[in-house]
Amino acid sequence: MTLLRQYLIVIAGIILLLFMPNLNGVQCAEDKILTVADILDGIKKSKSLFFNSDNFLVKVEITKCEEITPNRYSGGYFNTEFIVAKKGSMWFTSKKFTHIGQKNKDGKNIIKQPDGKGGVWVPLESEINIVKNHLVFEWDKNDTAASVRQFTNGGNMHQCNVFFRQLGWDLSRVLIESEGKDYDSIRDKENWLLDYLDHPFLPEFLENNLSKYSIISKKEDVDGFSCWVIEYSGMDKIWIDSDHGYVVRKRTYHWGAGSARKFTIHNKDFREIKPGIWLPYRQIVDKYASIISEDKKIWDKVAARIYYETKEVILDNVPEEVFNIELNEGLRIIDNVRDTIYTITKPNSDPFAGHEKQEIEASGYVIFRAILIISGSILALIGLWLILRKEKE
Questions:
Q1: Domain map (residue ranges) of the chain
Q2: What are 255-276's pLDDT values in tens digits?
């Protein structure tokens, strides 16, 4: 019996040796090391898959802000809801503070500062922007007036793109170029927009610096998911989950190569919204102390930790009503396209209806503008008359 057992063990060993190369081949195929170019291609396909829908709505909210290291911006982060929607050529954005503090004697929402000295008024009404036919309707519901103007650069709409920015996607480029504008020109000229446009977006930043990135051969786990790690030494480190649409599960970025860290983004709780489209339902962002405005002693230290939750995602079936906001009776519309100001005399859901459908008022603005034009013309004529008179003398 012992000899038979030994004989069987030997036979089994021989069989294993014979089939080992095939087993190794399967394992190698499963653990094939991707290249940075493979990662780049995967990110491109993932992004294209989402934006090809051309019909989406995403609502996210900052639900908590923690101060980790006291800094000059302490107390500057508030719970906020952001909505971005697109349907064909129409766009909608909304920003609304949801941070409830204490009401003062005037009924205003006051948020106390961390040091307990004073407070900040945080309005609780939405700021909305709607784009239709290359026109922008802007309405801060905390005010009694709204405006209509030609689309130029997207303005305050970009502040609502935080969810996409943390994925690495440049929604601002999609918005600007969909309106026929030159994104790179706007980015170079409009410095006040750099807080939103100056970001290492993917795949653009990776593609432009491809030779500086390398891929770590051994995969790393993030939240229990196996990720490829690509790194631009001392500048950028990204954990990519190729099994779930090449999503960015984690990313740490620096102010410059070899400099202090600028932010760490942690995208969590991914869900497949549509075949191949994975989006996070939680995002945690560590913002490090600014090397521009903060004391060097706190550089590379986390100044604030911000928690985001995805509240709603709609793909392909965004309701038309999202882009039709009911205007309050009595709201003043500053119409820069038709060069007039009018007041809404009855509830109206179309901010682009045109002043011919409203009661136009002879506003001080229109009168003042007319006076300036007439005065300028008179002065020009007087100047011309004086020049001609002098030449005759």
A1: 42-323
A2: 999 999 999 999 999 999 999 9
